[in-house]
Amino acid sequence: MTAPVPIAAADVTAFHDRLLATAGWPGAEPAPPAPGLWQWIQANHRNNCLLWAEEDLARRTTVADAEIAANKRAIDRYNQARNDATERVDELLLLALGVVDEAAARSQAPLAQVAAGARLNSETAGSMIDRLSILSLKLQAMAEQTRRGDVDEAHRAGSRQKWERLAQQRADLAGCLDALLAETAAGKAFFKVYRQFKMYNDPDFNPELVKERQRQP
What we know:
Elements: H1 9-20, H2 37-58, H3 65-96, H4 102-105, E1 119-120, H5 125-146, H6 153-185, E2 189-190, H7 207-215
Parallel strand pairs: 1-2
Helix pairs in contact: 1-5, 2-3, 2-5, 3-5, 5-6
């Protein structure tokens, strides 16, 4: 029996673009279309937006080192939150598609319940949605380059060509997401939640943080 497909890629990309066009975003958070899955898609997108801004700030060359250090720490926080939201999206999609049960969904290694012969997709649907979020940011940033008045027309024309390639990349990825969700709903494919262990953020795993703790009296 085929399960219903919980989301469409076109709705996700439209949602990403709508949030980017929202006044005050990502500081001001509008309510997501629905709690649960959309809430976590929004959380992933918000953290990608905050991460993007911090990455720009971290490349400055005329500010104090302390400011760059603060940017780096913010990058680590937003990257961790982005990955956590991606995993939550995967959990909720797998639940909606009937691939895992509620008890297993939040475990360290949710056991997939799939038909014999179903193929394992190397990338999760949540990771695809995360990449669509980043592509929406790239499209927005490249569109801004096409409107700059402080550069020559060659720069703007080159930026338009880059924007078109990014748009094609996002459309292709959206099609792949729809295909994966449809195949998973039909029992022909599946994906797993792998738990992306960000060891550099964990004081029990980052060797430099372990050394610091050991040196403390």
